[in-house]
């Protein structure tokens, strides 16, 4: 699917499949085209080329178009507010067809499910943000949509509420069995909610996979950096190997002379104490240790972040350590890079190979 505005491809050849009972998160930075993709699927915007199918049936191409209200798609957007003049029950019943009794039964069932039965006659302004969100979920699910499209649905909620509501929402979505496409710019939200993450950048899906795979085998440096801070160690390939102060790294199939970047997350740098000017002995798993001096160390709650200035090139590397670890600035320590936890990419961040 392609969608351009003023000649710019905002959605550039995106192809997605979402399965019933599964949550796919469209994850990416602000402006990368996530919402536009969702709006085209919902039918409130229209792609310039490409087709959208639901259950194998075409619902939209550039000629044919099923109107949004007949697509069996539920919408839950952050700014998709409840109708203020309607009660909770009437809000949920809004999109429902059938007899009065059937509607009442479905409304009661859903409000019970989202734990809002006690508020059935309330008006939206009488509810907290989290409660409104639950009613919005009930309303979107009421007609039994085959697909649920959710655009940053939790971003209006305060932090304390958010995790609980995310988990409850996920449970209900799974029970209802809809195929869910959820847009978010927060990696933690995607990791928490998704069966599959589609990582989007500049209008394109750059990687798809289970959260574990996307996190642990990022397609390129930028994909790695989207999920956490990263350390980058430069190198040049000779004979399928890259020599660095941390020892050699494998770069199979990479031509000699190619500049590469070795990427490692702060939690995967190993720290060892200095023993009379020496570090740990080299191993096949961790390579060679390189010496650095603590610049600063901060306690972050669950972990401590320690910044080192490396002796070999004066670069700064960041390491995180669980709990409290606050060595004094000026302390010399040794860092090693776990070969099974680092990624090797061609310089410049183009998608390429991984592995250490
Ligand atoms: N109706 C429009 N007219 C012109 N440009 C638009 C329109 N809608 C979106 N854009 C542009 O398309 C790009 C992608 O927007 P989109 O809202 O899809 O991104 P997004 O990834 O959802 O970002 P965010 O998380 O900030 O909502 C942006 O540069 C935006 O300015």
UniProtKB/TrEMBL annotation:
Keyword Transcription part of the UniProt annotation: no
Keyword Translocase in record: yes
GO terms for MF: ABC-type ferric iron transporter activity; ATP binding; ATP hydrolysis activity
Biological process per Gene Ontology, one example term: quaternary ammonium group transport
Entry-linked Gene3D superfamilies: P-loop containing nucleotide triphosphate hydrolases (3.40.50.300)
Domain called ABC transporter: residue spans: 2-227
Keyword terms: ATP-binding, Cell inner membrane, Cell membrane, Ion transport, Iron, Iron transport, Membrane, Nucleotide-binding, Translocase, Transport
InterPro entries: AAA+_ATPase, ABC_SmlMolc_Importer, ABC_transporter-like_ATP-bd, ABC_transporter-like_CS, ABC_transpr_FbpC, Mo/tungstate-bd_C_term_dom, P-loop_NTPase, Transp-assoc_OB_typ2
Annotated GO CC locations: ATP-binding cassette (ABC) transporter complex
Record-linked PANTHER family: PUTRESCINE TRANSPORT ATP-BINDING PROTEIN POTG (PTHR42781:SF5), SPERMIDINE/PUTRESCINE IMPORT ATP-BINDING PROTEIN POTA (PTHR42781)
Name of the protein this chain belongs to: ABC transporter ATP-binding protein
Classification lineage: Bacteria, Pseudomonadati, Pseudomonadota, Alphaproteobacteria, Rhodobacterales
